[in-house]
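User: C-alpha cells for this complex, please. No commentary.
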Amino acid sequence: MNRWKSAGTSYAGAALLAAAFFIIWEAGARWYDTPYILPAPSAVLQRLWELADILFLVHLPATLLVIVTGLAVSIVCGVGIAVLMSRSRAVEKSVFPLLITSQTIPIIALAPIFVLWFGYSMWSKVAVTVLITFFPITVGAFDGLRAASKDMEDLLRTMGAGSWQIFRKVQVPMALPSFYSGLKVAVTLSVIGAAIGEWLGADAGLGYFSRRMMTQMDAAGVFAPIVLLSLLGIGLFLGVKAIEYATTKRGGRRS
Amino acid sequence: MNKRYRPEHQETALEFRDVTYTHKGSQSAIFQHVQAEVKQGEFVSLLGPSGSGKSTFFRLAAGLSHPDQGTVFLHGSVPETRLGRVGYMPQQDLLLPWRTILENGMLPLEINGVPKKEAAHNVSAHLKAFGLDGVENQYPHELSGGMRQRVSFLRAVVGGSDILMLDEPFSALDSITRFMMQEWLLEQWQMAGQTLIFITHDIEEALFLSDRILLFTQPPIEGRFTEITVPLPRPRKENARDHPELLKLKRELINRMRGEGGII
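Assistant:
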C-alpha cells in the first residue's frame, strides 16, 4: 500500500515537472512565433498526427527492425563474451581492456565508415547500434556471472556438481538482475544508436525522416519522429522490466 | 543406538593418514603428517580459534582441497573423488534466494540427477522433523536465522551422505536460538545416527554436543590432535549442560588453550 502511495507521489512530481516544462515551452513558442526554429509542442503533436501514416507504417518499423536486430546481436555476442570472460581469467585479461577501448571510440565518427562498408542497407545502422549497446550488456552479464560467491560454488561442488551445473543452477540465476540492469541501459541507448545510424545514411527510419524534415525547414516535422523515438525507448525499457519481472522469481527480487 | 557410546569398536568413517598440507602461496605448512580418525556414527567437534586450520580440515575431508602428502580415507577406502560423498553445512546458510525452501532442499538431489517430483517428495518427507512444514513455499529471506540454518541442515541431510560436516552453523544466531538449535541438532542426530563433524569455537557447545573434541591450536599441527573425550552418556538432554563433569572439563580446556597460546 505504502509502496504504491509513495510511487504515486514520486511519479506525480515527475508529471508535474514535465507539464510545467511543456507549458513554458508552449507559451515561449507562441510568444516567439517562429515555428521553423522553435515549434510549439501542440504543433509537434499536430504534425505527428498528419504524418502518422508514413511514420507508423514505414519509418517506425524500419527503425524497430534495426534496433531489434542490433540488440539481438549485442545480447548474443555480449553474453557470449561475458561467459567466456567469467570462465577464463586469461580471456578476461585479454578481452576486457579491448572492450573498454572500444567505448572510447567516438561512434558518431565511425558511423560514416559503416555506411561506406555496408552502404545504405540496414546493416550500417545495425553496426552502430551493436557498437553502442553491447558494452552495457557485456559488463552487466559479466558482473552478474561473477556475483556468485566462491562459497556457493564450493558448496555445490561438495554436492558433486560439475561446472555446468554450477553455471546453470547458481551463476545464471545470480547474474540475471545485473544482466537486466545492463540491458535496460542498452535498450535506451539502442534508440540513439539506430537514430545516429539513420541520420548519417539511410533511406528509411525515424532518424532519417527527422533529418529530411530538417532540410525542409520543418521543425515540427523534425520533432515528430523524435517523439516517437523517445516513446520507443520508453516502451523498450518497460518491455525489459516486464521480462525481468517474469523471469526472476519473487524471492530473488529483494533489495 | 547403544553402540554409539563405544565408538572405538566401530568402523572408521573418515581417516586422515599422514596428511601434510600447505596453503597455496604460504611458506609454512598448516598440517604436518596429521593423523586423525572419526568413527562411524560419532559426533566429533573441531575446537579452536579462527585461522587454526579447522576449515582446511573440512576442505580436505570434503575433497575441495587435496593433501600435499598423505591420504584421506572415507569408510576405509580412497574414493576417486570425495566431492559428493560428504554432506556439508556451511557457516552462512548459503540458501539460494530465488529458490523456495522446498527447492533449496531439492538442490543436492537435482544435482545428482534425481527427478524433480521424486526430489520434492523426498524433501517434503523431512519438512516436519525439521520444523519447516508450512514454509516450504516461502523464500529464504522470509525465514528467521534459526529456520534458515535448519533448511541448510536439511539440504545437507537430504544429500544422503552419512558423513556430515557442520561449519560453525550456529555462530550467527542469538544465544537462546543457539541453545535450542543445539538441542534440536542432538535430537536429529540421535535419531538418524550419521557421523557428524562439527566446527566450533565455542567450548561449551563443543562439550555439550560431542563424543570427542579435537583441539586445533596454533598451526602447524603435527601428528595427532590433542583430544578430549566427553564422558557424558547418551542421549543427552538439556540439563547435561550443567553437569559438574562438563564444568570441570571446560575449565581444563580453557587452561589448556591458554597454555598453548591459543586465543578463543
